[in-house]
Amino acid sequence: MKAVYITEHGGTDKLIYGDRPEPEIAPGEVMIRVRASALNHLDLNLRDGKSYNGALPRTLGCDIAGEITAISPDANSTLKVGDRVILNNRVTCGVCDNCMIGLDQSCSNGKRIGVDLDGGHAEFVTAPAQNAHVIPDAMDFNEAATLPIAAHTVWHCLMTQAQMKPWDTVLVQAAGSGVGSMAIQMAKMVGARVITTAGSQWKLDKAKEWGADEVINYRETPNFSERVKELTGGQGVDVVFDCVGAEIWNENLLSMAPRARLVITGVTSGTQVNMNLALLHNRPLQLMGSGGRSNRTFAEFMKVVHHGSLHGIVANVFPLDNVADAHQAMEDRDFYGKLVIES
Ligand SMILES: [Zn+2]
């Protein structure tokens, strides 16, 4: 079958479009004819070796939508051949101590499709049946492929970690990114007030279209905390959702109201910070990482997808034989939403 894979780490020239063996369905698994797979920063880190030193070759693609073409006879599932599904790419064992106490996000034997297992930049992929979730009839595969990692991550960060409430004001960094654009949508879905940042006016306009109440151009206003304070009557925000990291860390802390919560799920601008502890002293801020996402939270946000309250945002679509351009577009960051590969 046709697939996009790497045999060594490096630049976009290491992405190979070629033939790989069709996967074989194992006990408990389903076979998926992939129709679309979305791109994540993780794919770039995997390609260049920053976040992966496992076995090669590896077929890339963590965010997968397609239709079921076969089901293992012993799969304990209500799925049928022909069902249109997306995949939770986090494969858990169900029998380790952490899984048994309901902490499958910390599964001792966890693997990720598209990272530790072959992914969805391909015609076919296999997955445990419980990782496949049926999508609404009216949702196309391209939109569906944008959901698994972005919606799962943001749901975990805002609903589970930060315990976002309708009366919160939420500062969402990087409005145009896959998780930023989803965070704006999710915060508005619960009724929160959203302040968001981006580096270009067209992205800020787009964020407004998706419901953002206030926007800040961080290139024109690098000390954005001052503007956040103006917009919140001097108080600061209740929740910060960050996927940028080091470059804006102290500005994030300065933007927070007393007792505010910050959750970080990306460090694209770097990992090392010189932190002013006076910003924490006498202020009971909660600073949280994102970390593993559970099977339960995937099922939770899928309920909302079926209610019609959450939508994927497709920025651009690329053919399977041109994933290199999609990687370049991700590095250039001049898009709003998610980049999708059609298989
Ligand atoms: Zn486990």
Question: Topology of this protein?
Answer:
Blueprint lengths: L1 E5 L9 E4 L9 E10 L2 H8 L9 E2 L3 E9 L12 E4 L2 E2 L5 H4 L10 E2 L11 E5 L3 E3 L6 H5 L1 H15 L7 E4 L5 H13 L2 E6 L2 H9 L4 E4 L6 H8 L5 E6 L6 H6 L1 E9 L21 E4 L5 H13 L6 E6 L3 H10 L5 E5 L1
The structure holds zinc ion (ZN).
Biggest beta sheet summary:
7 strands, mixed
Oligomeric form: single chain
Kindly state the percentage of residues in helix. Answer: 25-40%
| Through-space gap between termini | 11 Å
- Class from secondary-structure proportions: alpha/beta
Summed over residues and divided by their number, the pLDDT gives a mean of: 96
Total helical elements: 10
Number of strands: 18
**CATH homologous superfamily descriptor of the largest domain:** Medium-chain alcohol dehydrogenases, catalytic domain
The tally of structural domains comes to: 2
